[in-house]
From TrEMBL:
The chain holds residues 759 to 1036 of 1036 of the full protein. Residues 23-277 form the EAL domain. It comes from the Bacteria. This is EAL domain-containing protein.
């Protein structure tokens, strides 16, 4: 509410007012976090059919001074509604690129890819390509190892503009994965027109493949679709050996999920990766 004057808004619902106060506090904290470097990237392994690490997904964590680790489910929407997503998203890409440049100097780690989540708002920003270019020049990251995860919402509006941006990044070696596939507005027709590299089967389907024949059918047709469009396919949220076995039997050969490793700080992921090499 604005201070003073006749534009003061009155809240008659105490619960609503309390919720708003929490949100206002969180937003102020988010601005602080930008200045105080409270962000951290965790990395979750992605594996091939024999369990070898092929890459990682970078997942943002916020180390809040009082609340501890805050989950992105809570703050990403707020970053988006305040526009702070551009700045934080830029930090994420920069951090991932610095990590890639560092891994490029280590023989056992140089082949790994890093997948970075990109909010549709961030991707649509007119400065997005320019910001990325600066990061690429500054970090000298091997761009063939960088994968950007976008969601179907990106293509609901301004599809051609999104397509052009993807093409210009792909010309530099960057690859694209369609995250949360099956949960959005996808029409199959548009998929064929998009220059993507990978479909990522959403965890909500993966976790039900053995319990729901409807979900199993969705996963099967997603795998078939990926094949016929010459896209890679990866399943996320794989938690059990049975889920993995089912996916493998149905032609999905890349996995991510707690079964193979949780998201972890960079030191831990490096130790796990190096242990596997030796
Ligand atoms: P997402 O991109 O779908 O990421 C997968 C989420 O599933 C992650 O949650 C991950 O920790 C969790 N997960 C991985 N394996 C399993 C599993 O086997 N079982 C279960 N139950 N969960 C699993 P997290 O890290 O809390 O991130 C939540 C969402 O926040 C992400 O969903 C993504 O949409 C968003 N996010 C995270 N980091 C970023 C970022 O840097 N930028 C943007 N724009 N969004 C981000
Ligand atoms: Ca993702
Ligand atoms: Ca996902
Ligand atoms: Ca998700």
């Amino acid at each position: 509410a604005k201070a003073g004057g006749r534009s003061t808004i009155c809240f008659f619902d105490p619960a609503m007012q309390a919720a708003l106060l929490v949100r206002v506090k969180l937003e102020a904290d988010l601005r602080q976090a930008l200045e105080n470097h409270q962000w951290q990237l965790y990395y979750q392994p992605q594996v091939d059919c024999v369990g070898h690490f092929t890459g990682v997904e970078a997942l943002l964590r916020w180390q809040h001074p009082e609340r501890g680790m805050v989950s992105p489910g809570e703050f990403i929407p707020l970053l988006e509604s305040t526009g702070l997503i551009n700045e934080v998203g830029e930090w994420v890409i920069d951090a991932a690129c610095r990590q890639l440049a560092l891994w490029a100097t280590k023989p056992q780690l140089r082949e790994l890819t890093i997948s970075v989540n990109i909010s549709p708002l961030q991707f649509r920003d007119s400065d997005f390509l320019g910001r990325l270019q600066q990061i690429f020049v500054r970090t000298k990251a091997p761009l063939e190892r960088l994968k950007l995860e976008v969601t179907e919402t990106l293509f609901v509006e301004a599809r051609d503009a999104a397509r052009d941006k993807i093409l210009s990044l792909k010309a530099q070696g960057v690859r694209f994965s369609l995250d949360d596939f099956g949960t959005g507005y996808s029409s199959l027709a548009y998929l064929a027109q998009l220059p993507l590299d990978q479909l990522k089967i959403d965890q909500s389907f993966v976790q039900q493949v053995l319990d729901s024949s409807a979900n199993a059918a969705i996963v099967e047709s997603t795998i078939a679709l990926a094949k016929s469009l010459h896209l890679d396919v990866i399943a996320e949220g794989v938690e059990t050996e049975n889920q993995k076995a089912w996916l493998l039997a149905h032609g999905c050969h890349a996995f991510q999920g707690y079964l193979f490793g949780r998201p972890m700080p960079v030191g831990e992921i490096e130790a796990a990766l190096l242990a596997q090499c030796s």
